[in-house]
Amino acid sequence: MKNTTGRILAATAIVATAATALTACAGSEGGSDGLLASIEAGSVTLGTKFDQPGLGLRNADGSMSGLDVDIATEVVNRIAEKEGHAEPTIEWRETPSAQRETLIQNGEVDMIAATYSINAGRAETVSFGGPYLLTHQALLVRADETSIDSLESLDGKILCSVTGSTPAQKVKEALPGVQLQEYDTYSSCTEALRNGNVDAMTTDATILNGYSAQSPGDFTVIEMEKDGEPFTNEHYGIGVTKDDQATVDAINEALNAIIEDGTFDKIVADNLGDGQGVSPDSPGDLSFLDK
Ligand code: GLU
């Protein structure tokens, strides 16, 4: 009897804690009140990847590193400074590819910088600051692979990518002869490639260069071209609540300053070595969506 009561009390305590946690991160209507309000309140929840070296990585000691982590931190701190607020504390939230729009729509994050390509479909449910970086879809193969060297050579091969990502989508559209296996994360895709369960992996060159650099000598990155042009253009944006134009404007002002004063180049050099396959983009210019 005593035990049962104890269990009920414990269960009540868990429910109460969960309710407090929900209230703590929820604004009006159960969601974030927006990035600007969170900066003013002194704490922000930022979404990024946790398993992509050089871009968004949670290290063994719990610290965060990577280009997207540095860009997001810089953006938030510059907005805070401009508005006359202290630098907010940052809580990092893992945002896998397929969950990004939902996490923004539910208000569980104030913004997402997570190798997040801007495209028309996504722009129907979230708004984007940026683009801040341009990269292209590429292939990763094992270093001893000899039969894959181009888009065409993928026919009949087993390729992995990540659910909800633009590269997975593009492969399905353009290469119906390829067997596509979709994983939840790029790190599990990389393990499948290492173990020989798939023949190649495809996503942005930035991401593939990061995994390749992490395991020197194990993998080769191959560019993908169609008719002499890059197979895709991946314009990275910062996702925020749909139609929060004040936040989009503030992010773009910060991003433009970050690119113009050399901070972007420094962040690339710090995180991506020679920065192969990466160029700064034009924040605020979404004209590529019309093409
Ligand atoms: N940039 C692409 C995308 O947003 C691939 C990388 C990713 O899945 O995060 O889908």
UniProtKB/TrEMBL annotation:
Signal peptide start and end residues: 1-26
InterPro entries: Bact_solute-bind_prot3 (IPR051455), SBP_3_CS (IPR018313), Solute-binding_3/MltF_N (IPR001638)
Keywords: Signal, Transport
Cellular component GO terms held in the UniProt record: extracellular region; outer membrane-bounded periplasmic space
Domain Solute-binding protein family 3/N-terminal: residue ranges: 43-275
Keyword Transport included in the entry's annotation: yes
GO BP field: amino acid transport
Alphabetized Pfam families for the sequence: SBP_bac_3
Taxonomy, superkingdom: Bacteria
CDD domains associated with the record: PBP2_GluB
Recorded family membership: Belongs to the bacterial solute-binding protein 3 family.
Protein name per UniProt: Glutamate-binding protein
Protein's organism: Corynebacterium doosanense CAU 212 = DSM 45436
